[in-house]
Amino acid sequence: MTIASTLRLSLYGAAISATLGLIGCSNSTDTASNSESAVADTDKPAKTLAITQIVEHPSLDEMRRGIIDELADNGYVEGQNLTVNFQSAQGNTATAGQIAKQFAGDNPDAIVAISTPSAQSIVASTKTVPVIYTAISDPVAAKLIDENDVPIQSNVTGLSSELPIEPQLDNILKIVPNAKTIGYVYSPGEINSVVVLNQLKKLAPARGLKILDVTANRPTDVAMATRSLAGRVDVIYTSLDNNVVSGFEAMAGAANELDIPVIASDEFSVRRGATAALGVNDYDFGRTTGKMVYRVLNGEAVNTIKPEVMNTLTLYASPKHAAEQGVSLTNDLLKNAINVDEKAQSADK
Asked: Which of 84, 82, 123, 85 is nearest to 101 (CA)?
């Protein structure tokens, strides 16, 4: 364990129907944190914020940075009038429970729980401290809200990304048109990953696809699980499973050896080796979460802030990684995507 420093969108509305045309405009992933040069609003009283996430990996870290930057832009600046206690569970659910108990005892002004396991631990540990969850795929399945979008406790709200599976399957077929079997590597201990698996199995047959799932209970299992798919699948799909994302370079390396393209759900997985990904912009997701956190720190009762869903999708692609995994990306697909190879080259100049 380490210590360191809107409104609901329709799942199948216009934003989703134009999925591949929605390209994120934020360049903030390539810049230093905005909070470093921000000045606190001296009229705002000092606040304490606790933040926890199940593991540290680029996607979750970028969300956390977006939260801190959003608060700084609204006058709550870390190290000035905002004290931030960040703790990572390092992928261990027992540690997540220990952190949750510690945070509940510390009684901060608010707790941000990044990822499903961390949110579940925090919500189980306090019914009084305001809790804002984020990076949750299915808050209903995680028992954070009910089917009517009402939090199970009055001290809970948050932001989720219930990305619909149908656009993901359509995207896979754009990249690998002849695909028949999709491999899915996941951790059965993560409810969000299980939910995605069930949706894949339900919706894939209508597109002539089969799902072959293999488990990876720890990041160190990811490479072996990936290699077990050799000769059995045409493409691999990954959701934001924290174990898989933590060991993503191992997955990408194994996929390169096997010439199996990997399609992911976040920008950083494409940077780290995936062929492409269709997902929300992590930094923007953090900024939107930060707006909810700000409202709590600024005095709004958490039970008056409704849970939200952010489903605006961005397509990220890497022609370089695609070639390493035996596929070629079409010009039509690339013109509707953020090319992470070009983005990396621009950042290096």
From this structure: 123
Phi, psi dihedral angles at 61 (to 5 degrees):
-65, -40
Helices (H), the chain: 14-17, 58-73, 93-106, 116-125, 165-175, 191-203, 222-227, 242-246, 248-258, 267-271, 282-297, 319-324, 331-335, 340-348
Quick one: average pLDDT of 238-264?
95
Q: What is the radius of gyration, based on Cα positions, of the chain?
A: 20
pLDDT digits (tens, 9 = 90+) for 296-321: 999 999 999 999 999 889 999 999 99
Asked if 60 contacts 114 with a C-beta cutoff of 8 angstroms, the reply is yes
Q: pTM to 2 decimals?
A: 0.81
DSSP state at residue 273: T
pLDDT of residue 1 exceeding 50 = no
Q: Residue 46, exposed/middle/buried by CB under 10 A (0-12, 13-18, 19+)?
A: exposed
One domain, residues 153 and 260: no
Q: What's the domain count of the chain? A: 2
Same domain, 205 and 333: yes
Q: Which domain holds residue 291?
A: 2-13+23-162+281-309
Three-class HEC string of 84-114: EEEEECCCCHHHHHHHHHHHHHHCCCEEEEE
CATH of the domain at 75: 3.40.50.2300
Query: Residue 128's CB: how many other CB atoms inside 10 A?
Result: 10
Q: What is the pLDDT of residues 94-150, one digit of tens each?
A: 999 999 999 999 999 999 999 999 999 999 999 999 999 999 988 999 999 999 999
178: enclosing H helix or E strand: none
Q: Tens digit of pLDDT for each residue in 30-64?
A: 434 666 678 888 889 999 999 999 999 888 999 99
C-beta separation of 35 from 78 below 8 A: yes
Cα distance between residue 156 and residue 241, in whole Å = 23
For residue range 212-249, list pLDDT tens digits in order. Answer: 999 999 999 999 999 999 999 999 999 989 889 999 99
